[in-house]
Design brief:
heterodimer; A: Rossmann fold; 10 strands; B: mainly alpha; two-stranded antiparallel ribbon; 4% strand; globular
């Protein structure tokens, strides 16, 4: 035992340009204590943490961890003195799984440099021990079910838990927690605090915890509370003393004992699909559409008849088609594309007809079928026009069958005068 | 505990003094070595028993020692001293650095007994500096604007400049303007073409930039892609644009002459100037400094470039600072969400800013084409210094970019006379070509001193001053300015307001048209989707019952299978059954992969992101690609095997290089654009040692390992703290430095004639054995009918190396080392706060990656049997490896193999195409024909006639016969693949497989 103090801060200051974020503060945390650091927003709590942990260079003053000066030490060197901290905005390693997040922290793992990394495979027991410990921590935090998820997929509260678990994996002697329960649901937050309390009692580690909800932390059985305001330490004492202090209440702008409500877990907003209002069934439209569609299917050279020939294998169509498969050229590419469309169109016609009949039978809206008809015929007409534009060598008339189909769709779709039915919600 | 405290005491208290003492000692030692051939480095040969005979390397090492120690000294002092004196010291540090260089040259020359004459022509070098500055600024201004508003480094920016230049050239060749251009010289400048070309260059390039933003970048933005992804997407766009320009205009260099009178020898201003002549070294009664009067002629076209670019950038600056539009841009740059919430149409601001940034570069390109012969290659050579400029001037600051462009321009132009003066005494007549790399050296030096660039430092200083002023109770500076200045500023802003109005007049209709077209397109997409889905639902009610395990399965990401079927489709095309390909692949892709709620969509829990799925996809991909490669027709059995062996060799090389990139970028999160730099370490070492010193190839290879380790580790010192984009620029600069050094440095020549460039005629692995027995044996075994080609050995050897590196690397990455590296990639600070030494980790990763890349580089050198400056071109190496990395998937070594295979396969395919180009009987002739006819159609019928006159076609194509150059088609394809992969499968074909161990409950050790 070289010192009774886990953390000793003397005259610590951090200035950003002219702003004095932390202004000459002193405080101590004894070994095995569970201390809260509270204060209103922007009073310099997190900056204090950042300066102690070496993230920010301090302007002046001294922070000693277990009697060792932290002057000029990098964060990982301060960590090796036994200090681990968490961040206010949870920063997990997002594209790694939760379990992997937990097994990274232990320092001096076998195989954490390129030379020993090769040997690591020969000694699987280290990995096993780490994993076992990680699973145990997950069990105590009751989050084993998320172990295989990526850290980036977690909700805010779950991330907080994983963050605490990760900090515990490094076996810290002094744990600095920055708002560990912000965004965690009420009962869970209570159980986290209970767990931390138990940890302090059983393992003797020291915990300094930031919480800006004063009333919350005063009820949670911390040993001592340090209150900060405007970059200075306002007071330090047991929760009862702090509660009684006029100064503190004033600092919190008339903190009237009312709980700051903790934000609930982020409910992941589910994307809502934009649904269209479909118009009711209309028999006239249905009959007209079916009639025109049937007519279009029986127009010679395009439509169902020719497709029928295609399927039974007795038409010029198939011959040309077959020829295209084995002998391709630039011009034929267009023709081939055209034929693919044609096939698609001809095959879709009976399907749409079937759906049209079914909808008419059930008396449900015909809008879908109308749109399908318009779209399919439109596609074919466009492809025909393209073909006509780019490929003047082969004779390809515009698909009249498609025009007739389009007329069928139009009859079913268009309103005169337009009703309000087709609008989007 | 005591020794710990003592150690800490030493570390803390004296680091400042320690540094000063050590650097002073080194400075002195370097000077002694240069001046009197005495000291550490000079004693090296004695210490090694006269084995090392390094000749030129002595003075180089001594110069490096002297300069390095001096720099460290200046840096330490300027950091360590506060107050007035510190400020004074920092301000005078440029002078000190110049003094340091002078000391170095002087003692070097004295030590050699030589004389270096450096003559600086004030007007000449000043204006040359301005010309360079203007050129860099033409790109840097747009680059920094894109950085500010859209937050990514746009690699396509230089292509905008080239595009502007080619618009000017096409207009020059058009039937309308050619008579004016071709008119006889009459000593009267004709401004007609220049003005129209400037306007067209600005508007059309601006539209191109805006279009790129709308079509490509907006998609990434709307998905919230990281700047790194956008940067690489822009690299893909740049490759496509570059390839398109190459396809249209070929690689011949062209000069834009708006009127012949611009090129008259009388078309210049005569300026009286002074030439300062400095003599270093042995002077023999010649004074150190002499002056001479001279006259310098400033050609008008150069003046036009300087005036035009600086005026346009100043206008941009005023636009940013003085107008509504500028305020909006800055608001969006600051916080897009907040800007959107306060009623700014963000997309419109993005549109305008990309229009402006591209337009500026296009305009600069028009003017630049008057001073320099253009071809599409020029873009890249200016882009990298332009990146250096914006980094120097702090990214996102237009003002900083202006200053930095001037500084970099002057550094380049002033280094010219110094290099020329040093060339003769150092026996390096070609050294003046090195002026191209001076900006990079300067950049790296500045980044070591000011890791955030000049603009940031200036801004901080300004804020400090303002705050000090406020604290001391004085009124702010602006209140003290006389009233007239405010008035004057307002008057200056008026024309800008007019410009803003005009810009609005042009842009708002375009924007509105876009907003009108967009719903139509979206609607159509929606219709197409709904049609297919209704069709699908209606055809397959039965199939839905088969859809087991709907809840616990996630759909596979689209990318891989998309690529699989793309490959399948291209295979069908190759075998001439493309229609089948279309018919089969189309619906399968649609229902199996793309359509989100399709019942047929492949559903595997976590898809490729679990070990089995990843391996299955990997094997599938490799099998498809291998069969494709095998099915590419070739002339004979011999050439087929040669092609396959080359494919395997290149596969090994590219995979090893991508492993290195993956380690640096995919695992450690350091965006490395200098893969070829690390590769060149290996290539140059084995080549030099073998050709120059007669070493065996394996001895060279053994030497590569320590050299690459040391270089990689040392590189971490200046770069470990740099931001992602700064690191990228530094690494790409290193590659460029080596490329240019390879072209002009005699130490990097071996095996060739003394005058020729490059390294060649070095020993290849297993060559004697192969020549005596191996080739015959393989020839018989493979039934080739003659001796087997050497590629087979190198192919087998690189395959072996690939497997070796893969095995070792996966062992290492599976260990905590790899895991911690990935944690660093995710969040550096947090990793450090969990007790891991980030610097050591990064340095280790850099070093190991450097060794791997160097091995790849050595293999490549052996395959090519020669190392020439062209070897270092990033287009042929780094960018291809990036493509492999993107397609493969970061942090996945399987992905690297597959990605590299795709790149190599493309290479092989296009080699086959180019043999087919002259052979109508070739099985792939129809593809080439199709490419040619499509290009013909695009050029003759699609592009407006104004830009496709017969003269313009005749200038770019032999006999006006339009043929597609296949290597550029390949470039186009690779750019397209990069963009489309980033869009469809941002994680790549074979994404990283996260570690998901089974729960372990037994045997947990007690920690309670």
């Amino acid at each position: 035992m070289m010192s009774e103090l886990a953390l000793k801060v003397t005259g610590l200051a951090k200035h950003f340009g002219g702003i004095k974020a932390v202004d000459d503060i002193d405080f101590e945390v004894k070994k095995g204590e569970f201390v809260g650091l509270i204060g209103p927003n922007g009073c310099g709590k997190s900056t204090t943490f950042n300066t102690i942990s070496g993230l920010l260079e301090k302007t002046s003053g001294e922070a000693e961890v277990f009697g060792n000066s932290t002057d000029g030490l990098a964060p990982h060197e301060i960590h090796s003195l036994g200090l681990t901290r968490t961040f206010q905005h949870t920063r997990l390693w997002k594209e790694m799984t939760v379990i992997e997040n937990l097994i990274i922290p232990p320092r001096n793992q076998l195989g954490d440099n390129p030379l020993t990394a090769i040997l690591h495979t020969l000694r699987p027991e280290h990995e096993k021990a780490r994993l076992a410990k990680a699973w145990k921590i997950l069990e105590t935090l009751e989050i084993t079910h998320i172990a295989h998820l990526l850290a980036g997929e977690l909700s805010g509260g779950q991330s907080k838990l994983v963050d605490i678990g990760r900090a515990l994996m490094g076996e810290p002697d002094l744990l600095l927690l920055d708002e560990p329960v912000a965004g965690v649901a009420g009962p869970l937050a209570d159980s986290i605090f209970e767990h931390l309390r138990k940890l302090v009692n059983e393992t003797g580690i020291t915990i300094l915890i930031i919480e800006h909800n004063m009333n919350f932390i005063l009820r949670k059985g911390v040993d001592r509370v340090i209150v900060m305001n405007e970059g200075k330490v306002l007071m330090s004492g047991t929760p009862d003393e702090v509660r009684a202090s006029e100064e503190v209440v004033k600092a919190y702008l008339g903190g009237d004992g009312e709980d700051h409500t903790l934000p609930e877990d982020d409910i992941e907003s589910t994307p809502t699909l934009r649904m269209r209002n479909k118009r009711p069934f209309s028999m006239n439209r249905g009959i007209a559409g079916i009639a025109l569609l049937l007519l279009s299917m029986f127009i010679p050279n395009l439509g169902w008849i020719s497709t029928h020939g295609l399927l039974t294998g007795s038409s010029d169509f198939l011959d040309t088609f077959g020829a295209h498969i084995f002998d391709a050229s630039m011009g034929d590419l267009w023709a081939g594309l055209h034929m693919v469309f044609l096939l698609l169109f001809a095959l879709s016609q009976p399907i749409i007809l079937y759906s049209l009949l079914r909808n008419s039978w059930r008396k449900t809206s015909l809008d879908d079928d109308a749109e399908n008809l318009l779209l399919m015929s439109g596609l074919l007409i466009i492809s025909g026009i393209l073909l006509w534009l780019f490929n003047d060598t082969t004779s390809n008339e515009l698909p009249f069958g498609a025009m007739m189909t389009m007329a069928a769709g139009a009859v079913m779709y268009l309103d005169y005068p337009p009703s309000k039915g087709g609008e989007e919600e | 505990m005591d020794h710990k405290e003592i150690l800490q005491g030493i570390q803390n208290s004296s680091s400042f003094q320690r540094r000063i003492v050590i650097s002073l000692l080194l400075l002195f030692d370097g000077w002694l070595g240069l001046r009197h051939d005495f000291g550490l480095i000079s004693f090296l040969p004695q210490m090694t028993g006269e084995y090392l005979q390094l000749n030129d390397l002595y003075w180089m090492a001594q110069c490096t020692e002297l300069l390095g120690a001096g720099m460290v000294l200046i840096h330490t002092v300027s950091k360590g001293i506060d107050g007035k004196f510190g400020t004074f010291f920092r301000l005078s540090s440029p002078l000190l650095i110049i003094g340091l260089f002078a000391l170095c040259i002087e003692s070097l020359m004295l030590g050699m007994g030589e004389q270096a004459i450096i003559s600086i022509n004030i007007a000449n070098h000043g204006f040359t500096g301005l010309v360079w500055g203007a050129t860099y600024l033409a790109i840097a201004a747009g680059l920094t604007l894109t950085y500010k508003v859209q937050r990514y480094g746009n690699f396509a920016q230089s292509e905008y400049l080239v595009f502007g230049a080619y618009i000017a050239l096409s207009m020059m060749w058009s039937d309308h303007f050619w008579p004016q251009v071709d008119a006889p010289k009459d000593e009267v400048l004709n401004w007609n073409l220049l003005l129209w070309a400037s306007l067209a260059g600005f508007l059309l390039t601006g539209l191109l930039g805006a279009l790129m933003d709308l079509v490509v970048m907006r998609r990434f933005r709307s998905k919230g892609a990281s700047p790194q992804v956008m940067m690489i997407a822009s690299l893909g766009v740049a490759m496509m644009l570059r390839a398109a320009l190459y396809l249209r205009y070929g690689s011949s260099t062209e000069l834009f002459v708006p009127d012949k009178d611009w090129r008259l020898s009388t078309s210049k201003w005569e300026i009286d100037t002074v030439v300062h002549k400095f003599t270093f070294g042995v002077r023999d009664s010649i004074p150190f400094h002499e002056e001479a009067e001279k006259v310098f002629g400033l050609a008008w076209y150069k003046a036009a470039l300087i005036i035009g670019v600086f005026a346009s950038v100043l206008a941009l600056l005023m636009l940013m600072n003085g107008t509504r539009l500028g305020r909006k841009m800055r608001a969006v740059a600051d916080n897009p969400d907040l800007a959107a919430a306060s009623g700014i149409n963000i997309e419109r601001v993005h549109f305008t800013s990309s229009f402006l940034s591209a337009g500026l570069s296009g305009f600069g390109g028009v003017l630049f084409a008057m001073t320099t012969r253009m071809n599409p290659e020029v873009g890249l050579t200016i882009l990298l210094p332009a990146f250096a400029v914006i980094v120097l001037g702090t990214i996102g600051s237009v003002r900083g970019a202006i200053f930095a462009a001037l500084i970099v321009g002057f550094v380049r132009s002033l280094s010219q006379p110094v290099l020329v003066g040093l060339g003769r005494p150092l026996d390096r007549p070609t050294i003046s070509g090195m002026d191209e790399i001076m900006p990079y050296f300067f950049l790296i030096a500045v980044l070591m001193l000011l890791p955030k660039g000049i603009g940031d430092a200036a801004e901080k200083w300004r804020i400090e001053r303002l705050r000090a002023r406020v604290d001391s109770g004085k009124p702010p500076l602006s209140d003290k300015l006389p009233f007239d200045i405010h008035r004057f500023k307002e008057i200056l802003k008026r024309p800008i307001r007019v410009i803003e109005g005009v810009v609005d007049l042009v842009l708002i209709p375009i924007q509105q048209a876009m907003t009108r077209i967009n719903p139509v397109i979206t609607n159509l997409q929606f219709k197409v989707k709904s049609t297919y889905s209704t069709l699908g639902e209606k055809i397959t009610p039965a199939y839905e019952k088969l859809n087991f395990s709907k809840e616990d399965s996630l759909p596979t990401p689209q990318g891989t299978l998309f690529l699989c079927f793309l490959l399948l489709g291209s295979g069908m095309i190759l075998t001439k059954s493309w229609l089948w390909g279309l018919l089969l692949a189309g619906p399968i892709i649609w229902f199996g992969v793309v359509k989100v709620d399709s019942p047929w969509r492949l559903k595997i829990p976590r898809g490729r992101e679990q070990a089995a799925g990843s391996w299955i996809t990997f094997v599938l991909l490799i099998a498809i690609m291998l069969s494709l490669a095998w099915s590419i027709p070739s002339v004979s059995n011999h050439s087929k095997w040669m092609g396959m062996a080359r494919l395997v060799a290149l596969l090994g090389i590219f995979t090893i290089l991508s492993f290195s990139l993956n380690l640096h970028t995919g695992y450690s999160g350091m965006t490395n654009f200098g893969v070829i730099f690390f590769a060149s370490i290996g290539a140059i070492t084995v080549g030099l040692m073998s050709a120059g010193y007669g070493w065996y190839w394996w001895q060279g290879l053994l030497l590569v390992v320590p050299i690459a380790l040391v270089i990689g580790w040392l590189l971490a010192y200046p770069t470990a703290n740099l931001r992602m984009d700064y690191f990228a620029i530094v690494t790409i600069s290193l590659g460029e430095i080596v490329r240019i050094a390879l072209a002009s440095e005699p130490l990097l020549r071996a095996g060739t004639n003394t005058s020729a460039i490059g390294i060649s005629r070095y020993e290849l692995p297993f060559e004697p054995w192969w020549d005596s027995t191996g080739s015959e044996w393989f020839g018989e075994a493979l039934n080739l009918g003659k001796e087997a080609p050497y590629q087979i050995v190198i192919g087998l050897f690189s395959l072996f190396c690939l497997l070796l590196v893969w095995g070792v690397l996966s062992l290492m990455l599976r260990a905590p080392w790899g895991r911690i590296l990935r944690a660093i990639r995710e969040d550096e600070e947090v990793t450090q706060h969990h007790g891991h030494n980030v610097f050591r980790m990064k340095a280790g990763s850099l070093a190991i990656g450097a060794v791997i890349a160097a091995l790849g580089g050595a293999l490549w050198a052996w395959l090519n049997a020669g190392i020439f400056p062209d070897f270092m071109s990033p287009v042929n190496s780094t960018f291809l490896i990036w493509a492999a990395f993107i397609v493969g998937g970061k942090a996945s070594n399987k992905g690297m193999v597959a990605g590299a295979f795709l790149v190599v396969l493309m290479n092989m395919l296009f080699t086959a195409f180019s043999t087919a180009q002259n052979d109508t009987e070739h099985g792939l002739y129809f593809v080439v024909e199709w490419l040619n006819s499509s290009l013909d159609w695009v050029i003759r019928d699609f592009i407006p006639d104004m830009f496709a006159s017969d003269r313009a076609i005749g200038e770019s194509f032999v006999k006006s016969e339009i043929k597609a150059t296949l290597s550029y088609v390949k470039l186009l394809m690779i750019g397209f693949i990069i963009v489309i992969t980033l869009h469809l499968a941002p994680k790549g074909m074979l994404p990283e497989v996260p570690y998901r161990p089974e729960p372990i409950s037994e045997g947990s050790d007690d920690d309670e």
